Amino acid sequence: MPFRNLSGDRSESYFSDGITDDILTDLSRYAELFIIARHSSFAYRGSDLTIAQIARELGVQYIVEGSIRRSGDRIRVTAQLVDAEIGNQVWADRYDRELTDLFEVQDEITSIVVNRLVGEITRQHYRRSLVKTPETINAYDYVLRALDYVWKFDPDGNRQAIAEAERALVLDPGAARAHAVISWAYLHFYNNGFSDDLDAAADKCADAARAAVKADEREPWAHTVMGWMHQWIERSTGRALSELDQAVSLNPASVYFLGAFAPFRTRMLDGPRRRCRNWKRR
Predict the structure, then answer these.
(1) Per residue in 122-154, is it b (16+ CB within 10 Å) or e — as a string?
(2) Model confidence pLDDT, tens digit, residues 57-87
(3) Which of 21, 1, 19, 2 is nearest to 99 (CA)?
């Protein structure tokens, strides 16, 4: 929804609309989210309808709304995420900033809000996926379960992650993130010696990484696992950096992709001799 301008000056609406536009644009980077277009949501500016009614008319589950108040050189932005299906507030926060650079502040707040929103929505969907019946579960639910398992970094977790991701692919063979999870799990097997056949694990990691990128070139997870595969299996740091850079460019504010990219950039800055020693496989 368009963020409300509480500054008492209608000329300040450009800033509140700008924040809303930036949030919409950045949210659209996430392929798993269906985002209503600006002209549809802005049509409800000043509407007397309830959040639940607006959500039903737009066909969405969540509503993001907020406000902006500017006073002199200070600005306060509030934002909240509402689950319209059950009628409760999922998340809310407030941001106070000095207006030293208008666009810099706008970019900073947009980045923070978007990543918090996506994190909260993902968390809500993961909780729902755990209690869904087999008849109602979908491919994305299986992907969320797979991601939870792969974060455990142990052999059993990796096997469970692969199983859940494969269930997702049965329902949606083009689920790029499911392929990415499979690649990531096999990379764990390869790098940590969790498999009796490391060559087979490496091949499966590479195949799944390529399948992920082929399924959706806009999926950051696909480029991330492709980058890891290039580095840890093919020993090609240049190609790894190119893929990880692509992942960050697709979602420049995500802690996941920035975190995946950071160690590679650090090694590059460390110098070739130290980099070669540190990258040597255990």
Answers:
(1) bebbeeebeeeeeeebebbbbbbbbbbbbeeee
(2) 999 999 999 999 988 888 899 999 999 888 8
(3) 19
